[in-house]
Amino acid sequence: MEIVVFDVMGKQYGVNISSLEEVVRMMYVEPIPKAPPFLEGVIDLRGVMVPVVDLRKYFGGVRDAYTFSNRIIVILCADKKIGFIVDRIDEVCRPDQNSRHEGRTSDVHARFFEGMVKMRGGRLVQMTALDRILLPQEIEAVVSFK
Length: 146
Prior knowledge:
Elements: E1 3-8, E2 11-16, E3 20-25, E4 39-45, E5 48-54, H1 55-58, E6 71-77, E7 80-86, E8 88-93, E9 100-101, E10 113-118, E11 124-128, H2 136-144
Parallel strand pairs: 2-11, 5-7
Antiparallel strand pairs: 1-2, 1-8, 3-6, 4-5, 6-7, 9-10, 10-11
């Protein structure tokens, strides 16, 4: 398994690379009036309008400005392309198969938490399923703004 490790508000998350459509550099995001606060807007990705969610805002943080390090992770979510803005991509790696630990969490992130992976150097990364971050009604709201 190969994973992409990304950062949001100083916390590292991992996602299986096979679940991603692509990762793109931060680009202009067209704002959408009256959109949910976490919906940053839409991007034109090679002729396809893709709604973009800012994970920092979705997790309750504040975004002052975008930087050169920001990336947009594009996934298929309920058969629709959705982009997620992350603070940065830290690495793409293949952790040891025995380093994965299943686990449960009782917080709001429980629906997309898939356990922990121990990385080189001993640090732990929370594995996530980006396609399960948004609730069904949030997905509908996001894709309806395209």
